Amino acid sequence: MSLLQKITLGIAHVVTALLVVFCLIGAFLGTERAARLFVSAPMSLLWAGAAVGVVLAVAAWPGLRRSPGGPQTRFIAFGNPLLVLHLSLLLILVGAFLGSEAGLRARQMLLHDGKVRRGLMVLTQGHAQSRVLCEPVLHETALLPFELRLDAFVIECYEPGGPAKSYISHVSVLREGRVVTTADISVNHPFHYGGYYFYQYSYDVQGEPQSVLMVGSDAGLAPLQVGLVLLAAGTFMHFWLGPVRMWVANRYRRES
Q: pTM here?
């Protein structure tokens, strides 16, 4: 075993052991404290170590970069399923980092982009604003590069005077005072615009109608989604197409 392979296995063992420890600790912290733990600076270093381990594994084991069974089987499963699985893990780690507090801080330092990770937006009917109350400390605020205006808030009921069926916020997006698009936001039907998702969170119809939207950044979502697709594809290739690939390879060798 080469030195690079030994280093890679060492990183894998350390990262796996620390993940087990942090998961056990997080199980007793509660949802909010566990969420803060897994986006903390030590965990960011751990995720970075895991990503480095994946890259080193691909570099240290040439078998991960070859198609098992030879060129004659590539029509069945392009490339190596283990390589696809490793790449999927790398993309998932990259996506998770880009969407974390540490990733957004790094983005702000490098790109001077003050993107909001998550928060609440309180809209009053007929008024436009861009202010977001940042979570978890709601007294901290940030501004979006555009404004949202609540045109109307509607509560639909199953029957007049009956239980509510849905809560809908009719909003307009404004840039430099001009409406660029409109949307209807309801429970389980978020609105995506400008790198953010807007979810119907709460409301207040006492006095001037108000709608409370939860704002979430989509940073890191694209590599995360691609990574999950590759994870499913690599799993299918390895456990289902693997036997077929080996059968074709063995038959090719017998015939040749």
A: 0.73
State residue 75's pLDDT score: 41
Domain borders along the chain are 3-110+220-255, 116-217
CA distances from 41 to 52, 95, 103, 207 (A): 16, 16, 10, 44
Taken as a whole, the chain contains a residue count of 256
Q: Are 125 and 153 in contact (CB under 8 A)?
A: yes
Residue 253 class from Cβ within 10 Å (0-12 exposed, 13-18 middle, 19+ buried)?
exposed
Mean pLDDT is highest, among 66-80, 148-162, 235-249, for 148-162
**Nearest CA among 78, 79, 81, 83 for reference residue 57:** 83
From start to end of the chain, where are the E strands?
Answer: 118-124, 128-134, 141-157, 164-175, 178-186, 191-193, 196-204, 210-217
The pLDDT tens digits of the residues spanning 205-241 come to 888 889 999 999 998 889 999 999 999 988 888 788 7
Whether 85 has a pLDDT exceeding 70, the answer reads yes
Asked whether the beta carbons of 237 and 84 are under 8 A apart, the reply is: yes
Residue 136, preceding bond cis, omega within 30 degrees?
Answer: yes
